[in-house]
Design brief:
With about 600 residues, this protein is an alpha/beta fold. It has three domains: about 230 residues, Aminohydrolase, N-terminal nucleophile (Ntn) domain (Glutamine Phosphoribosylpyrophosphate, subunit 1, domain 1, 4-Layer Sandwich); about 200 residues, Rossmann fold (3-Layer(aba) Sandwich), CATH 3.40.50; about 140 residues, Glucose-6-phosphate isomerase like protein, domain 1 (Rossmann fold), CATH 3.40.50. Helix content is about 35%, strand content about 25%. It has 19 helices and 27 strands. Helix 15 packs across helix 19. The longest helix is centred in the last third of the chain and has 23 residues. The structure holds 5-amino-5-deoxy-1-O-phosphono-D-mannitol. 5-amino-5-deoxy-1-O-phosphono-D-mannitol (M6R) binds next to helix 9. The site of 5-amino-5-deoxy-1-O-phosphono-D-mannitol (M6R) has 16 residues, from helix 9.
């Protein structure tokens, strides 16, 4: 998704911008560009492709100490050099980069064309540059402010004027923007990772806020030009944490980090003495929690599947009716909000537009919405009514892995709290605590031998279609496994409850459509085995993820990935990790761009 970097200070701006854009690569993009102001001489360079290609064409003479840069993920207009940012007006005095979508850009553009403006791109963003230029009378921040009153839609903007070589105006509405405060230098960015090599002191802008930065100063304003006193915050993450740590791919690193990241999600949140948990960020008293009659979880993609695991746990263990809904569907269905329903929005990035808008719609109707997020200081945690950080650390690969297992961990703790407030006995509570505590070591056991998963992925990567089948708590894990395979290997995969295949999908089964069955040794094992036999009877190839020692499964399937025996409650962890590895090795075998799969962005900040 699009990214913004801005710099004002003593360094060569082009170097800072290119480095910042490189850090934003993980968000996904199709083109990039920078503009620097060298004492009133604006120089812009932009093109489709990777940052390294852009870097190769930036001349060493590209001087200037103030500049803006952008990574674009096309929404309006094709992926072309012209449509890449920065954009400028006819006089080429105003130059800007923009994240978001301007809904009324065509109306504004038509009017500007009548007034004599000519446009070089098909983007909604260029329209903003022309509009600012048409309203500019010598004060850049006033022109920007007047402009945003005319815009409908979402924007994070960084704007420069040719004649003001050491100033950038930033504005936020619906698309994140953060100010970095350095020593005689200031930064702007859509994401802290772009600037954290230079400073850890940041200010998060809220919607409808504007900032003016120069090398030595920053001033923040609301849209009524009232100056604001904003809190300076300290970024908790180190840049080192973002490096690959010796692995070839971020996804690989993030898969192997899970014993530690899961631990971070529950450490300090378990109370063995009370066989319960603590989640302080919920901002709810026990009296409020006991009155909750229903829980609804709202999210997108992998976070949605984590939410499904959460709803299953809450309903089956805490005995509170719970369901999961796709964020993209919630916003427009005029949802019914009831006073005794508690809502959770789940999002790794905390910036997913679908999830954010669903949250806003629910809050508008009076709902109490709590966030389960990873990125500290992102929009959802700041705008929700409370919530829990999953503490996964930065997740760079587009395919979400460690965030999923940490999100479900938070739901295990939440379930424990809610269940222990109701009927769950001390002994049953301790069983959940022990099960959770056993997970990191069980995963380490899986990691001791991943060769068989690699070998199976290699042999099966020639197939074009897969079914992923699981039941109960592991049904959503099957859906997540199918999503992982699709998004990074581009192999078509569908997830189903294994009980559902007889209602339609079994028609797809033949020797060219393998099925991957999740077979835990729980109450549904025998039923899953029957489903395997149905597939085998139709000449379907079957891979099973099964519990070590389950000879009956080994006898009827073509290949087995073994997992250690564990408390059935923890099988979602032990099943999903081999599925992540299966997708990873399949993608490697097919020589895919594992960390940045085609057409996808890490943080989907448009609807
Ligand atoms: O940042 P979020 O968790 O809100 O993102 C939601 C989805 O876009 C995300 O999980 C997506 O499905 C991943 N690429 C899956 O690996």
């Amino acid at each position: 998704m699009c990214g913004i970097v801005g710099y004002c200070g003593p360094k060569k701006a082009a170097d800072v911008l290119l480095e910042g854009l490189k850090r934003l690569e993980y968000r996904g993009y199709d083109s990039a560009g920078i503009c620097v102001n060298n004492m009133g001489n604006l120089r812009t360079i932009k093109r489709t492709g990777k940052i390294k290609d852009l870097r190769n064409i930036v001349p060493v003479t590209f001087e200037g100490h103030t500049g803006i840069g952008h990574t674009r993920w096309a929404t309006h207009g094709e992926v072309t050099d012209e449509n890449a940012h920065p954009h400028s007006d006819d006089s080429e005095k105003i130059v800007l980069v923009h994240n978001g979508i301007i809904e009324n850009y065509q109306t504004i553009k038509n009017k500007l064309i009548v007034e004599g403006h000519t446009f070089k791109s098909d983007t909604d963003s260029e329209v903003i540059a022309h509009l600012i230029a048409s309203l500019y009378t010598g004060n850049l921040e006033s022109a920007v402010k007047e402009t945003v009153f005319l815009l409908k839609g979402t924007y994070g903007l960084a704007v420069m004027h040719k004649d003001i070589p050491d100033k950038i105006v930033g504005v936020r509405n619906g698309s994140p923007l953060v100010v970095g405060i350095g020593d005689s230098e200031m930064f702007l960015a859509s994401d802290v990772t772009a600037i954290m090599a230079h400073t850890k002191q940041v200010i998060y802008l809220e919607d409808k806020e504007l900032v003016v930065i120069t090398p030595d100063s920053y001033k923040t304003f609301d849209f009524n030009e009232q100056e604001l006193q904003k809190k300076v915050e300290n970024i908790g993450w180190d840049l080192d944490q973002i490096e690959k740590d010796g692995y070839d791919y971020f996804m690989e690193k993030e898969i192997y980090e899970q014993p530690e990241s899961i631990l971070r999600a529950f450490v300090g949140r378990i109370d063995r003495e009370g066989a319960t948990g603590h989640l302080g960020g919920l901002n709810m008293t026990p009296a409020e929690l006991i009155n909750i009659k229903r829980i609804q979880i709202v999210a997108a993609g992998t976070s949605y599947y984590a939410g499904m695991v959460g709803a299953y746990l809450i309903e089956s263990i805490a005995r509170i009716p719970a369901s999961t809904e796709l964020a993209s569907e919630v916003r427009y269905k005029n949802p019914v909000v009831q006073p005794d329903t508690l809502y959770f929005v789940v999002s790794q990035s905390g910036e997913t537009a679908d999830t954010l808008y669903a949250m806003k719609e629910l809050q508008r109707k009076g709902a109490r919405v709590l966030g389960v997020c990873n990125v500290v200081g992102s929009t959802i945690p700041r705008k929700s009514d409370g919530g829990v950080y999953i503490h996964s650390g930065p997740e760079i690969a587009v395919a979400s892995t460690k965030a999923f297992t940490s999100q479900i961990t938070v739901f295990y703790v939440l379930t424990l709290i809610l269940a222990r407030m109701r009927h769950l006995s001390f002994e049953e509570g301790i069983r959940i605590v022990s099960a959770l505590e056993s997970v990191p070591d069980k995963l380490r056991e899986i990691f001791k031998d991943t060769n068989s998963i690699h070998d199976i992925a290699k042999r099966y990567s020639k197939y074009e279609n897969f079914l992923f089948l699981g039941r109960g708590l592991n049904y959503s894990v099957a859906l997540e496994g199918a999503l992982k395979l699709k998004e990074i290997s581009y192999i078509h995969a569908e997830g189903y409850s294994s009980a559902e295949i007889k209602h339609g999908p079994i028609a797809l089964i033949n020797e060219n459509t393998p099925s991957l069955f999740l077979v835990p040794d729980d109450n549904l094992r025998d039923k899953v085995i029957n489903n395997i036999k149905e597939v085998k009877a139709r000449k379907g190839k079957v891979i099973a993820i099964a519990v070590k020692g389950d000879d009956e499964v080994a006898k009827i399937v073509d290949d087995v990935i073994w997992i250690p025996s564990a408390d059935p409650l923890t099988y979602p962890y032990l099943m999903v990790v081999p599925l992540q590895l299966f997708a990873f090795y399949s993608a490697i075998e097919l020589k895919r761009d594992v960390d940045q799969p085609r057409n996808l962005a890490k943080s989907v900040t448009v609807e």
